[in-house]
Specification:
CATH topology of the largest domain: D-amino Acid Aminotransferase, Chain A, domain 2
CATH class of the largest domain: Alpha Beta
Radius of gyration: 19 Å
Largest sheet: 9 strands, mixed
Helix content: 25-40%
Shape: globular
Number of strands: 17
Strand content: 25-35%
Structural class: alpha+beta
CATH architecture of the largest domain: Alpha-Beta Barrel
Length: 307
């Protein structure tokens, strides 16, 4: 069991010791990537002695929508998933920052890559997690030689486990070339997203981000950032973004459950802005981190307390 794992995992209908949550090597999803998953964070507020799960209903709804898109054979509601997650966190007595991974997968032991008529189950595990990528010092990035797959190849609004081969190729390429992260272009050559995060640029005080048709995941953190930015009075435009615009952006940052809000200092060896975190990014990042810890009254409706 990983060192940052919790003692208990939800596995095929019940909470069990994490070391007992195992599947056969013949499991359908292991062979074909036929599963969907979510990434959910919880933030512990020491002063309030409570753990807050960020946008739990939204994440659970997206997970169930993913099963509909992919025809996974399981009957479960967003509300049922929420209840399981809260029970699991309480069972683990989680009192630190956490990352949750619900995974709905084809659990049958059979051949033939398909979604219909294949039994599916759900498992949920939790990890102790603070930063996934550096949020303070700026990330170095490169435009990947790997193209982001389109919605007509693998549905981009569903977090399909098999589709993350695409992300893994881009991430490895970036890291092996000395960078922190990759940036995908879509099939048309426009900017899409990072390997596992949405992307924003700032030009002349206006925030821009790629549209859903740019083969991006409809990010829940992305939606939150757009709301925060608008509440601060910034204009946010969702549009196609050309690759060369990355190089002349005043600011550039990623958003996502894992990455949270992390600024980018370099793309393809070009320094973004003056090489420091930009004022708009810094303000949004500050409010976001306050919001997820229950320190922004205007955004308390985004949080589900565990205790």
């Amino acid at each position: 069991m990983a060192q940052n794992s919790f003692p208990y995992t939800y596995f095929e209908g019940k909470i069990v010791p994490s070391e007992d949550a195992k599947v056969s090597v013949q499991t359908h999803a292991l062979q074909y990537g036929t599963g969907v998953f979510g990434g959910i964070r919880g933030y512990y507020n020491e002063a309030k002695k409570n753990l807050y799960v960020f946008r739990l209903p939204d994440h659970c709804k997206r997970l169930v929508n993913s099963t509909k898109i992919m025809q996974l054979q399981i009957q479960i509601t967003p509300e049922e998933i929420q209840s399981i997650i809260l029970d699991l966190l309480r069972k683990n007595e989680a009192k630190q920052n956490v990352y949750l991974r619900p995974f709905i997968y084809t659990s049958a032991l059979q051949l033939s890559p398909r979604f219909h008529d294949v039994k599916a189950d759900i498992t949920i595990y939790a990890l102790k997690l603070d930063d996934y990528l550096d949020t303070q010092n700026g990330l170095t990035t490169m435009v990947s030689s790997w193209q982001r797959f389109s919605d007509n190849q693998i549905p981009t609004l569903s977090k399909v486990s098999g589709g993350y081969v695409n992300s893994a190729l881009a991430k490895s390429e970036a890291v092996q070339n000395g960078m922190d992260e990759a940036i995908f272009l879509d099939a048309r050559g426009f900017v899409s997203e990072g390997s596992a995060e949405n992307l924003f640029i700032v030009r002349d005080g206006v925030i821009h981000t790629p549209t859903i048709p740019s083969s991006i995941l409809e990010g829940i953190t992305r939606r939150s950032i757009i709301q925060i930015a608008k509440d601060l009075g910034y204009q946010v435009i969702e549009r196609d973004i050309a690759r060369s615009e990355l190089y002349i952006a005043d600011e550039l940052f990623f958003s996502g459950t894992g990455v949270q809000v992390a600024w980018v200092k370099e793309v393809d060896r070009r320094v973004i802005g003056n090489g420091n975190i930009g004022p708009i990014t810094k303000k949004i990042q500050s409010i976001f981190f306050e919001a997820v810890r229950g320190e922004q009254p205007n955004y308390m409706n985004w949080l589900t307390p565990v205790y």
